[in-house]
Amino acid sequence: MKKKAAHAGMKARNRENTIPGKSWQARIGASEDRVAEKFVESLSFDKRLAEYDIRGSLVHADMLAKVGLIHRTELERIRSGLNSILDDIRAGRFKWDIRQEDIHMAIESALVERIGDPGRKLHTGRSRNDQVALDLRLWCLDAAAALHRAIIDLQQAFLALAEGASEIPAPSYTHLQRAQPIVFAHELLAYVEMLDRDRLRLLDVRRRTSISPLGAGAAAGSTLPIDRAYSARELGFTGVTRNSLDSVSDRDFAVELVFAMSMVAMHLSRFAEQWIIYSSTEFQFIRLADTHTTGSSMMPQKRNPDMLELIRGKTGGIYGQLIALLAMFKGLPMGYNRDMQEDKRLVFSAFDAILPCIEMAAAMVRGVSINSAVISSRIDEGFPDATVLAEYLVNKGIPFRTAHQVVGKLVARCEDTGITTLSKLPLDDMRRQCPVIGPDVFKSLGSANVLRAYRSTGSGGIKSVSTQIAWWRRAIKRAAVELSEPEHR
Ligand code: ARG
Question: 0.70 exceeded by the pTM?
């Protein structure tokens, strides 16, 4: 027993003279266990936080010097040590060793190895608990900014396509059954709307993420005279967290970000489904660029929309990450718990799935051709002008419900007599059903007329859609500079 304790003590002392081992080894004196080491490590995935970790440490050291906890000369040593580590990591020269457990220990150990004692002062007034919270916040801010940029690019792609489709008559659908005529651009702009809500959601998440937890320590803060506001400012945050315990407990910002990603995924998945349908032989509304389809190993004629299917397919995985995060946090007691280490894996995977989906979608929108001839050739089939005929009757003083019934009967009459569009129904047939109908009815019927007749704000007619396009042209320009705060990350 005695011998073992002495041995452990020696081991700990030796380590003091070399590089710091695991953060807890000095007390526990644990020897190595490969299974446990491999199980507990996060370095294999959190090394992705390296740049953020070093940025945080540089500012932390700066603050320590400013408040007199380390000497200026020590600060200089720490700085050059951290910068050399950063250079090595960027150049792919850094030796990663999972025995260092995580990115925080890996960098700190390398620092002590390179500069000795001043490196041992870096961790003054902080814990890995506020450090990891800081790193993840910095990473999430950047990730949200990258998604924001990608979304704007996709919006621009949709807008450009809409500009060329602003007068193509197309059906709108409810229940995937023909509803009312619109110009095709109206549907494209609906995606721009969805994406804009996603974009704003990301900005909103960023607002709550941009608060510094650094200096919260392990749980309750520090008795040392650290200046949290200074570090926060230097890191580009808008402020500091108010409660140290919440600071190390909270990952809401990361969960919110994955929710925002899930919403983007949901929108893209619906878009993918729509275009899979539109590119089918049954519809032929659009033709995807050759590079955005794949062939079949057996059927030579195939142009499969695999990229769209993958966008739709990846959505399930992203939802999975969100649910995993929500489930993981629901049982955690207050404070830091190691379960939280898993959050990074989930947030990173969601991000790695969604960003390429947005980029792929933008490329597909840019590469598509719209078969306007096919879309318009059968535009009046399915009686999409029926609602306008009812509104024609409303203008003649007929109550809408009555008008609805009248038109229903006229549609039935068409179907019974094999007439495919309302405008081909003889006036006499119409008047028999409702005598107020006059020859002017033909000015209302047919999609071309309907598209000129829409009056309500936001409708799918030619005038409204050109107003929308003009509005988006300005709005997207504004959005692109909305996140133009100096990219300190
Ligand atoms: N690798 C850990 C994580 O990602 C860092 C924090 C460790 N803190 C601790 N008290 N064990 O969550």
Answer: yes
